[in-house]
Amino acid sequence: MEIMEKDVAKTATKLKTQQILEGKVLSVKWEPNLKYAWDNGPALGRYLAELKNGRIIAKKCNKCHRIMIPPRMFCELCWRPTDEWVFVKDTGIVNTWVVSYVDWKAGRLDIKGGVRPITPAVIEIDGASKGMGILHLLDEVDPWKIYRGMRVKAVWKPAEERIGAITDIKYFKPIE
Amino acid sequence: MRRVAIVGAGLTKFYRNVQETPKELAYEAAKMALDSCEMKLSDIDCVVIGTAPDAFDGLHMKGEYLTDGSGGYRKPYMRHYVGGGTGVLSPIHGWFHVASGMFDTCLVVAEEKMSSAYPHPAGAFLTIFDHTTEQPLYPTLIWIFAIEMNRFMTTYGYRKEDIALVAVKNKKNAMDHPSAQLPGEITVEDVLNSEIMAWPVNRLDISPTSDGAAAIVLAAEHVARRVTEKPIWIDGVGWALDTAYWCTRDLYYPDYVEVAARMAYKMAGIKEPSKEIHIAEPYDPFTYKELHHIEGLLLCKRGESVQMLLDGVTQRTGNLPCCPSGGALGVGNPIAATGLMKIIEIFLQLREEAGKRQVPGKPTCGVAQAWGDLMQVGTVVVMRS
User: Fold this and answer.
1) Taking residues B232-243, what's their average pLDDT?
2) Is the pLDDT of residue A176 over 80?
C-alpha cells in the first residue's frame, strides 16, 4: 500500500484564515473565564515570603548535597525529604538565553517601533549548586551582547511594592 | 510477551484550519488504516487514542469526545497524552494491549486540531508552566525551545547557518509527501532571513500550526501473518520522562531520549544503533531538535550531528536517512498525529512502499522518536521488516 495524493485528497478540507476572520464560515467564539487560587505549599510559600523580604532562599538535600532553587520539600533525585533552608545570593550567571520578538501568545512585538525584545534566560544562582537555574528576564543590557557565563544581579522592586511573587525581582542586569 | 506487527496505516492531509471536526479527522485516518489491510471495525478488539492538550480544542476530556471518530464505541478504549511525545507513545500504548495477550488487534489513532485556538495555539501552552515560579513571567514554548537551542549551540559551537540545513532538507523531502502542509525548496539564506521569532529561532526553524490525524492497525503475530504478507514488527519500545524542574537540567543534551532509546534498543537487541539502524524519523518540531534527538538516539557521538548533516549522511540518499518523510518541518506538526505520521513513514519505508520518498538500499530496521511535555519526555519505537 502506498499512501497516494488521491487517498489523502478527500480527508481534510482547507479553509483560509481570512475566510474565518471575515465571518464567511460559521464560527463560534468562546473566551474561557476560568479562575484558580493556587496553593504554593511550604517550600514555594517560604520562597515567595523571602522574595518579599528581598532575599532568595533555597533548600538543601543532605544526601546528594544539592542546594536547590526553587526550594522543594522533597529531593526529586534522592526521593527523600529535603533538609536545611539556605539563603543564596541574588547574583548569578547566564546559562542560556533568548532574544524574543514574540509574546506569550506568539503575538509580534513592535520591534521596528522601538519595543525592546524580551530577553528571558536561565540564570544559575550563586550559592545554589552548579547548574541550578531559574527562568527569569534580563534587562538593562543590549540583547545582542548577552553571552553564556555573563554575570548578572537581580533588580528588585522597591520593598513597599513587593507582594511575595517571582516578579518581586523585576529582572536581572549585568554586573559591571 | 507476544510479537506485535503494524499491518495497516492511514493518514489525512495536514493543513492549518481544516473544516472537518476532530472526530471527522480521526474517522478519516482510522477508516483509511482499516481499509489498507482490508479489515473491518468488527475485527478490532480495542482502540487507543493519542491526542495532546485539551486546551487546543477548548474541549476538556478530548479523548472521550474522539471516541466515535476513532471507532472506540463500546470497545475497550483508552487515551494517552505526553505532549509532543504522544504520537510515538501511541503505538507503544497499543503494543501493551496486544503484546500482553489481552487483545489480538488494536486500532491506534492520533488526532490533533491546533487551529481552533485563537489568536494562536501557542497561548494555550502558558498553563504548562509552573503556576508560581514561571507563569507570572509569561513564558512561551518558543522561548524555552530557543533557550535550549542556544544552549546546544554554545556547548558545541554549532552555527545557525548549519542547523538551518535541517529545514532545507526536510521541506524538500516533504515535496514527495501527499499529506504535506509546508513542502518546498528553500535555501539556508531563506531560513536565516525569515522573521526572527525568538533568536536563535527564526520562523523557518519552526514547524507550523497544523490539523490532521493518523492511524495504524496493530495485530498479534498469528493475525498479522494472515492479514498481510509484509508485517512490520514493533521490536523495541522505550519511553522516559525527566524532571519538570527544567531549569535544573543541562539542556544541551536530551538524557531522557537516551534513556528511552536504550530501553528500546535493549529490547530489540540493538548494540550499535548507528550501524544497525538504517533509517530514522527523529522528532523535528524545530530545526535543532532533529540534531539534538539524533545525538540522544545515539545515532552519532555527542557534538557530531551537525557534521553528519553537512556530510549528507541524513539525506534520503545518505547512509542514515533522517526524516525522509519531510518531518514536522515539512509535512506539518499536528502534535500527536505527527509522531504517528513518523511511525507510518518507517512502516512504509520498511515495506518499500514509500513511493517517491523510498530510500535506497532496502532498509530493514528503523527508529521513530518523539519528544514533548516540558522538554522532558522521550518516546522511541524500533521497527523491523
Assistant:
1) 97
2) no
In a domain, A6, yes or no: no
Average pLDDT, chain A: 94
Q: Which of B16, B132, B212 sits opposite A40 (nearest CB)?
A: B132
Query: What does the pLDDT look like over B74-115, one tens digit per residue?
Result: 999 999 999 999 999 999 999 999 999 999 999 999 999 999
Total domain count for chain A?
Answer: 1
Task: Walk me through the domains of chain B, giving residue ranges and CATH numbers.
Answer: 4-118+208-384 (3.40.47.10)
**A34 pLDDT tier (thresholds 50, 70, 90):** confident
Separation between Cα atoms, residue B232 and residue B37, nearest integer Å: 13
Strand partners, A92: A125, A152
Report pLDDT digits (tens) over B316-352. 999 999 999 999 999 999 999 999 999 999 999 999 9
Q: Is residue A127 part of a domain?
A: yes
Contact of B345 with B173, CB cutoff 8 Å: no
State how far the Cα of B299 lies from the Cα of B43, in Å rounded to an integer: 38
Q: How far is A153 from chain B (nearest CA, A)?
A: 17
β-sheet bridge partners, residue B106: B46, B218
Residue B108 neighbours by CB distance under 10 Å: 31
**Cβ(A148)–Cβ(A94) under 8 Å?**
yes
pLDDT confidence bin for A31, thresholds 50/70/90:
confident
Query: For residue A91, what are the domain limits?
Result: 41-174
Element (H, E) at A156: strand A151-156
Kindly state whether residue A100 falls inside one of the protein's structural domains. Answer: yes
> Which among A101, A104, A167 has the least Cβ separation from residue B123?
A104
In the stretch 111-140 of chain A, residues with CB closer than 8 A to chain B read 117-118, 120-122, 131-137
- Cell numbers for A119: 530577553
Query: Has residue A22 been placed in a domain?
Result: no
CA distance A119 to chain B (A): 9
Mean pLDDT of the region B365-384: 95
